[in-house]
Amino acid sequence: MNTLRVALLGCGVVGSEIARQMVEHADDLAARVGARLELAGIAVRRLDRDRSDTGVDPTLFTTDAVELVSRDDVDAVVEVIGGIDPARSLILTAMEQGKSVVTANKALLADDGFALHAAAEKHDVDLYYEAAVAGAIPLLRPLRESLVGDHVNRVLGIVNGTTNYILDQMDTHGAGFAEALEEAQALGYAEADPTTDVEGYDAAAKAAILAGIAFHSPVTLADVHREGMSGVTASDVASAKAMGSVVKLLAICELAPEGDAVGVRVHPAMIPREHPLAGVRGAYNAVFVEAEYAGQLMFYGPGAGGAPTASAVLGDVVTVARNRLGGVTGPGGSWYAERPVRPTGETVTRYHISLDVADRPGVLAAVAAVFAEQGVSIETVRQRTEDSGDAELVVVTHQATDDALSATVRGLTDLATVRDVMSVMRVEGE
Amino acid sequence: MNTLRVALLGCGVVGSEIARQMVEHADDLAARVGARLELAGIAVRRLDRDRSDTGVDPTLFTTDAVELVSRDDVDAVVEVIGGIDPARSLILTAMEQGKSVVTANKALLADDGFALHAAAEKHDVDLYYEAAVAGAIPLLRPLRESLVGDHVNRVLGIVNGTTNYILDQMDTHGAGFAEALEEAQALGYAEADPTTDVEGYDAAAKAAILAGIAFHSPVTLADVHREGMSGVTASDVASAKAMGSVVKLLAICELAPEGDAVGVRVHPAMIPREHPLAGVRGAYNAVFVEAEYAGQLMFYGPGAGGAPTASAVLGDVVTVARNRLGGVTGPGGSWYAERPVRPTGETVTRYHISLDVADRPGVLAAVAAVFAEQGVSIETVRQRTEDSGDAELVVVTHQATDDALSATVRGLTDLATVRDVMSVMRVEGE
C-alpha cells in the first residue's frame, strides 16, 4: 500500500485533534483513502510544550514551518494556524512546491480566496476548506458539489456559535446582553475579548466565503455589510417574542431579484419561531439554503470545537489524498458568474422599529406620515402606554429598501413627538 | 468547449424535470462542468404523449432504451424509471459500454448495490445516486465524502415524507391514522395504495443504503427490521405528547456498542420534542447523524418531488461529467469494514407500553413483577383510571433489549389482570 505524507501547521485545539485522530484511526483512514496517511511533521511555535496526549512521535515537531512545507516527501499540507500571516505565505509556498492544501482559515479565505484558488490552479494542486465555515457541518462540499446542478437563491446562516448561545440565553431566560455574555465567557463559549464574535466579524468572513461559492462570484470580506449584536436588548428580544419571533445573528447571502447582483450582510434579525433556524439552540450552527429546484434545505451541527473542526479537516484530507492517488484535482474555485455585490442601501427586507413617543393624540398620524413620505408601507403598529405618560410604538413594515428605511428613521428622529428611535431590526425568513 | 452526452431513461415527474433543467440552464451547467451537457436521447414507454413542456427536441424520444444506453456517443446514463427491472439490466448494459450512471433508484440499490458498484468498478465508470435517499437533501455525498475522516455511530432519519405528513397531522390536529391518511391522499402526499410508504418499505430501502454507506459494510433491504406506522393510534400520539414527545417513523442505522455489528431498523418511535428531528413538519425529510468527532449533525429538506429530486440527480450528473473530463472516477462503494447485521432481538432501546388493566389493588405489583422477571427496568409508570372501572397503565422502561421486551410483553399478555397490551413503541433520540 502507498503512503501519503501530511504536514500539519499548528498544534493547538484543532491541530492536536487532527494529529490524534490520524494516529487513532490510521487503519480506517488507510482503507478509505486506499493509501496510508502519515504525519510528516508538525510545525509549532514552541517545542517545549508537553504534547504527549496527541500520541504523536515527539521527533515530528518542528519550529521551521517553511522547511516543512517545502520537503520533497510531503504530499499535502494542513494549515490550522489561523490568521492572515504567516498562514498565507506558508500555503502559497506549499502550493509552489506541488503540495495540496487543506485549511480551516476563514479569515484568509474571506480576505483573498481567489488568489489562493488561482495559485492552486496554477500549480495543479487541491485547495479544500470545509472547516472554515460552520465547523463540522458538511456545507461547502454540498454547496459546491451536490447543489452544483441547481441555483441557490438565498443562504441564511447561523454561523457563529458564541452569539447564538448569547441570544438563546436572552430568549430563554430573558437575560440582558451583558449578563448572557458573561455567562458565555464563564462557560468558554466566548473569548475574554468577544469583539470578533459579537460584532459579527467572524460571521462576516464566513458570509463572504458562502456567497462566493453559492453564487459563483468573487466576494470578499470587504463586500459584506456587517452589524454586530452587542446592541440587542432584552426589550428587543421580548418584542420579538411578542410577535412570535426570535432574534438571531444571521449571515445572509442572496441573489438580487433579477439575479444580476449579490447581497451579503451580517446583522441581528427577527425570524418567525416556525422557521427551522429558530430552533437552533445554544452554540449550534445551522445554514438554511433556498435553491431554485431543491427548495429549502438546512444543514445543522456544531460550528466549532477541536474534534468537530478536525472531523471536517480530515474529510478534506481524505479527499485530497484520493485525488492525489488518482492524479487529479477536485473542482476548484468557481467565479464564472462574476455577479457584482449590490450596495447595502438596495437591500429589500422588512423592519421592526421601536419608538419612544409622547402619549398624545396625533403622534401616530405624524409617525405614519413619515413612513408614507418614504414609500415605506406599514404592516402593523402596536402601542404600549406606560403609567408615566410615555408610550412605546412598535412598527413592523412591509418590504422596503435599506435606503428608504434609513431616510424614514432620519425623518422620525426629527419629529418632536418621537423622543427616541430605540431599535431598528430587520425581519427575515418569512 | 467539449460536449458530453447524457442519455435519460424515463420521462415522468423526475425525468421531465431533469430534461427541463438541462435545457433551461445549459449555459450555467456548461460553465460549471467545463463542457456542454447535451441530451443524447430520452427513453420512454410511449411516444404518443405530449412532452412539449420539457422544451426538449421531440426527435430525442425513443422507446428503445437498450439501443440508447449502448450508443457510442453517450457518455453518461441517467436512470429514473425506478423499480428493479428493466432498470437493473439497462444500468448494467450502460456500464458494460463504458457509460457512467446516475440513478435515483432506491429499490435497486437497496436490493443489490454491491453488484452495481462492482460492475461500475469493473468497467471503470461512475455510479452516483444522491437522489435515492431523502430527495434533494445532500446526504450521501456528505456521508461518503465530508465525513469520510470521521466515524458515524448512528443515523436517525425521517426519510419518508408521506408518513411524516400523516404523523404530523395526527400530532397537530389529534387526527386518527385513517383520517390523516385520507387527507394526505387528497393532497397528493400519499398514493391510492399507500402500503409502500405506511408499512415502511420505502424507508427500509433508504435505511439499507444509509447503513451501508455510514458503516462501510454490506447491508441490503433484507437486513432491515421493518415495522410500519399504520397501527399508530391517536391515543399513542396523545400519550407521546403527554410525556413531551412526538411520534415519528424513523429509519435507524446504528453501530453496536462494541462497533463490531450494525443494526438497521424502521419503525414508529417516540422522540423528545427538543430533539431536532421533532421539529420536522409536514412532508419534509431530515436525517440526524451522530459521528464520533463531528458530533450531532442534521440534514433537512424536501424528500421527494420532481424538481427537488432532479436537483440531486443533476448534481450527480455534473460530478460524473467532471470526472469524465478528468479521466477519473469518484470514490466507489466502500464495504471494507464488513460488519455483520445484528439480530433485531439484540437491539437496545427504551420502550413505551400502554396496558388496558382492571382497576384493582395488586395490578401494578403483578405488572412490575413481569418486567422484573425479564430484567427490564421501569423508568416511569402512569395510571389513568376511567369511570368505567377500567384503567390504562403506561409504562416507560429504561434501556432493554428487544428480546427482553418481547418476553415481557408475552408475560403481560398472560396476566389475568391485563386485558390488553394496547401499544408498544420504542423511545429514541435521548
From TrEMBL, chains A, B:
It comes from the Bacteria. InterPro entries: ACT-like_dom_sf, ACT_dom, Asp/hSer_DH_NAD-bd, HDH, HDH_cat, HDH_CS, NAD(P)-bd_dom_sf. Pathway: Amino-acid biosynthesis; L-threonine biosynthesis; L-threonine from L-aspartate: step 3/5; Amino-acid biosynthesis; L-methionine biosynthesis via de novo pathway; L-homoserine from L-aspartate: step 3/3. GO terms for molecular function: homoserine dehydrogenase activity; metal ion binding; NADP binding. It catalyses: L-homoserine + NAD(+) = L-aspartate 4-semialdehyde + NADH + H(+); L-homoserine + NADP(+) = L-aspartate 4-semialdehyde + NADPH + H(+). Catalyzes the conversion of L-aspartate-beta-semialdehyde (L-Asa) to L-homoserine (L-Hse), the third step in the biosynthesis of threonine and methionine from aspartate. The lineage of its organism: Bacteria, Bacillati, Actinomycetota, Actinomycetes, Jiangellales. Belongs to the homoserine dehydrogenase family. CDD domains: ACT_HSDH-Hom. L-homoserine binds at E191. This is Homoserine dehydrogenase. NADP(+) binds at L9, G10, C11, G12, V13, V14, G15, S16.
